[in-house]
Amino acid sequence: MADPRLTPARGDIAAKFLEGKVDAARFVEGDTFEVRDAIAPLRAQPLAGAEQMTQALKGERVTIYDRNGEGWAWGQLEADGYVGWIPEAALAKLSNTTHQIAALRTFAFPGSSIKLPPIETLVLGSKIMVTREDDSFVVTSEGWFVPKQHVVPLGTIEPDYVAVAERFVGTPYLWGGKSSLGIDCSGLVQISMNTAGMECPRDSDMQQAALGRPVDDSDTKSLQRGDLIFWKGHVAIVRDAETIVHANAFHMATVVEDAREAVARIKAAGSQVLTIRRMG
User: Fold this and answer.
1) I need a surface site. Which of 40, 133, 152, 185 has the fewest CB within 10 A?
2) pLDDT tens sequence across 138-147
3) Could you tell me what percentage of the chain is helix, strand and coil, using 3-state DSSP and rounding each to the nearest 5?
């Protein structure tokens, strides 16, 4: 059975490429847009109070297949294939993005002075279209001035995804979040790997199925930097033989924690380690 999180199909409508594969009243091609908001929620239902399944960052592309006429659009994110409802107001026509935000977060100013009140807060992984440089700023297609130190050309790759994850320590836990304003366990893995040029699905069960290879010793005796430890509904990144970094609801934050203490704590709460996956 197709995973509804990754399959743009409902009883009344589905993506054209699924015709003959799923049942739906009609099939549509869809239109591709770009996220213009700094962060946009992707929700399970077209309601502001519905579950946030994930987020889309500025510059991400999404193919829209349906609109409910009340400000919500239903579609699929291009990068990881996630399907859900996104605010129509967060969407814009496609642009030719050229750069990405390399800082955990930065400000966009209305002019070339850090004394001006910021227009927006941009987060790691956001994509922008730079039209020119102005002293210590780059200027975006919207006319925003972003500090040059916080911007790198599109496709720039961080050498160590674990080091990226470590930068998020202290970030508040947020279900469905994937930025330094709020992040969940699998979002931390995804954004860290993406920044390091690695493809990564969104949810922990998808990551468990798709990433790395299993490590025989699942009792954490031979952990290596970059390993992933999976529980049901949770994932942590191994920093070294003794510690992990993970976003978790116990601390309500991204923290560095002793691996064996974390395994014992989570086991006491009723969840065993399912597997350890090794990257590379």
Assistant:
1) 133
2) 999 999 999 9
3) 15, 40, 45
